[in-house]
Amino acid sequence: MxxxxxxxxxxxxDRDVDPDALKKAYRKQxxxxxxxxxxxxxxxxxxxxxxxxxxxxxxxAEKRKxxxxxxxxxxxxxxxxxxxxxxxxxxxxxxxxxxxxxxxFGAFFRRSPVRHGRDVQVPLEVTLEQVAExxxxxLVFHRQGQCKACDGSGSRPGTRPPKCSTCGGLGQxxxxxxxxxxxxxxxxxRGDGVEIVDPCEACHGRGSVDEEVDITLPIxxxxxxxxxxxxxxxxxxxxxxxxxxxxxxxVQVAEHPxxxxxGDDLVCEVPISFPQAxxxxxxxxxxxxxxxxxKVPAGxxxxxxxRLRGKGLPGVRGRGTGDQLVKLHVETPSRVTExxxxxxEEFERISFEEAGKEPPEPRRKSFLxxxxxxxD
Length: 376
What we know:
Blueprint: H1 7-11, H2 19-33, H3 44-58, H4 61-70, H5 89-96, H6 98-109, E1 120-126, H7 128-133, E2 135-146, E3 172-177, E4 180-185, E5 208-219, E6 228-231, E7 247-253, E8 260-262, E9 265-272, H8 274-279, E10 281-287, E11 290-296, E12 305-308, E13 324-330, H9 338-354, H10 367-375
Parallel strand pairs: 1-7, 9-13
Antiparallel strand pairs: 2-5, 3-4, 6-7, 8-9, 10-11, 12-13
Helix pairs in contact: 2-3, 5-6
């Protein structure tokens, strides 16, 4: 139990705090840490529960005495519903006021029929050109949308569903198991708190209908495979008029016939001839934005990479632009004419003569002969 926070520290009070000051401190902390007021903080709900638990213990004279003596290791402990045996709901109404009480603590005492909609996840394939330029694209998907006929209530238009006759609108019922008492979802309304006795003909009482959605989706430049785009409220409709879920679009960048992607850089392979590699020159290469001319140095070897600055992809958050890497591949002709053969042989002969050597006879030793020389 050593990892549990101290109740006095949670409420920001001294150990000799009087009941009135304790109540004021609790009200302040409950308002400050309520999950609805901290939607971006995933830990807010847990802190809110701990604050309620702390006040449930310290506002009860007997429990506070046990806590002061034993801490969290008190006999029986203090786990469980912080509103059972420690806080009277009527006292909370007086403390916070009726409307604020319903806003902050209503969920602990009743279950609302309103439900937040489920999220939707759909794939989207984009081209490398779209990654480079960004812009809008069309997205068509299916979701459960709110029934327009009944505004999501599930009841026939012009009527309102009555409270559930079994749970009285709480969405939960208490079931006795011998000397134990358990709370479970109401079997009649399945937690909605209302009964659909006169269902809407359009949605058959569900409050939602299947619909095809056609939206325009902005694609940020530089996006990569696996990135998710989120659109608030574009998911499945909430039940009984609740807020819709979110839409998550998972991006897949399609393969390009010429370019490969390495981060923000683009890589392509360009073939050049033996004379081009030997003599050098200028060649034309494609880019995503058109064509560019690059200089090939004389004596270029196969595999050499040339860099075109700024011809790659933009950073996904606007942080610069990548380069285009051009890998040169020297092609060896598979067929030559007699004239080409004569010229190549002349070229080889001149190369050896200028180097002060005689051409080998035969012209090239076999692989096995070389291997034998290596290991003899």
